[in-house]
Design a protein that fits this description.
By secondary structure, this protein is mostly helical. 82% of the residues lie in helices and 0% in strands. The chain has one domain: Growth Hormone, Chain: A, CATH 1.20.1250.20.
Length: 413
């Protein structure tokens, strides 16, 4: 076992320095993301009991991302990319602090905190995506995303479990006079520390900014337009999938302790599977990985709608823990391959495609969140929690055919 771990470490060291720095930076920051994605939703639900406020937070967040992508493109002409990347990570802690300082959770306060988090995500993802493109190639991207997703999957087990235990123990043992919000404030402080560490480490890389060229376009090659169609389908699920677990568990299962424990079940096996996939899979295997992820997601959504109980939520979470990283480990290399091809064909700045792609995701996210809000207002919240996921999962299955067509046409360009 020891020899195998040493061999894997040597494999890691065989890759370019900048690629390794980016992976380690993302590993540190991956300890923050589960807190943002799961426990902010749980915090809002605990203090307001209104699922629509969770969705409003997400809508504000998603609105901030594409706007920041555009701002980031202009700032890259003056500021080093590593500084903007670091700023995005630090800003996530600011957003959580703004949330904790609200005396009352209302639509305005939630929207402002969500917008700040969206700006944070915008700086983080805009620069992370570009650096991933620049530090990898089509042959090593399966390894890169396999290892990165391995990190994210493991932290999605470890972090929610320990944070959930800490919050649960605060209530049970009457720490801080039983004030759970104090526990959330301590967690926010830890987030700040982790973002500072990751922000410092990213400067170990020797990253080069994109060329200072025009990056806003409105007409693109037809292959890229198909990629935008795929991004809209991806965004459709993202618009709801980030907040759905917290809302379902707080409503049907229990408290934050359960939220953390449920996330832990099955995720370690999933992480190991993803690492192996990243090591041994080739570019031609991406469509199969992508399809399996979508089918597992649809299965979990069907179970949740059919049972709509604590057991249904647990089964859905298990499917999600496996499906979500499978989709990411296949989707991102497909996206970067298309950018490689189309940017060269159209002789454009690669950042232009990341910006346009983000607006495609935003359209999908708006549709996903809008569907949930419409169901909540015009039918019932329970109906929305029960069927929105199932409808989205069924629509998502069309992504298989779109992705297959993109891969086929990429070979012709």
């Amino acid at each position: 076992m020891r020899n195998k771990l040493i061999n894997e470490y040597r494999v890691f060291l065989s890759y370019p320095h900048n690629m390794r720095v980016l992976l380690i930076t993302n590993l540190i920051y991956s300890l923050v993301l589960p807190i943002i994605e799961l426990f902010i939703g749980a915090y809002i639900m605990r203090n307001s009991q209104e699922a629509k406020l969770v969705v409003i937070f997400q809508l504000a967040l998603y609105t901030g991302i594409p706007i920041t992508f555009a701002i980031n493109g202009f700032l890259l002409r003056k500021i080093k990319i590593a500084w903007l990347y670091a700023f995005g990570m630090l800003l996530s802690g600011v957003s959580m602090t703004a949330m904790m300082m609200l005396s009352e959770l209302n639509i305005t306060g939630i929207a402002v905190a969500g917008l700040i988090m969206g700006i944070s995500y915008g700086f983080f993802w805009a620069n992370r995506d570009y650096l991933a493109l620049e530090t990898t190639n089509d042959q090593n991207r399966n390894y890169y995303y396999g290892l990165e997703t391995f990190f994210y999957t493991l932290t999605s087990v470890i972090v929610p479990y320990f944070v959930g235990v800490f919050i649960g123990a605060t209530k049970e043992n009457h720490w801080f006079e039983g004030n759970i919000n104090t526990a959330y404030q301590i967690i926010t402080a830890v987030v700040f520390i982790l973002t500072i560490i990751s922000s410092i480490y990213v400067h170990k890389g020797k990253f080069i900014n994109p060329k200072q060229e025009k990056f806003i376009f409105f007409r693109f090659h037809r292959l890229w337009n198909k990629m935008i169609g795929l991004s809209i389908l991806k965004g459709l699920a993202q618009g709801y999938i980030v907040t759905a677990p917290a809302m379902l568990i707080m409503k049907l299962v229990g408290d934050e302790h359960v939220l953390g424990t449920v996330q832990a079940i099955g995720a370690i096996m999933s992480a190991l599977m993803l690492y192996v996939l990243g090591r041994i899979s080739k570019p031609q295997h991406r469509i199969y990985i992508f399809s399996i992820g979508l089918i597992i997601f649809a299965l979990g959504s069907f179970i949740n709608a059919g049972l709509y109980s604590s057991m249904g939520v647990i089964m859905f979470m298990l499917c999600l823990v496996v499906a979500r990283p499978l989709l990411d480990v296949a989707y991102f290399p497909i996206q970067l391959k298309v950018i490689d091809l189309v940017a060269e064909f159209e002789n454009r700045n690669e950042f232009a495609y990341f910006l346009h792609h983000e607006f495609g995701l935003y359209i999908g996210r708006l549709l996903g969140c809008g569907m949930f809000i419409a169901m909540t207002y015009f039918i019932t919240e329970d109906f929305a929690l029960k069927y929105a996921l199932l409808i989205i999962a069924c629509i998502q299955l069309f992504s298989i055919f779109v992705a297959k067509n993109i891969i086929k046409n990429s070979k012709k360009l």
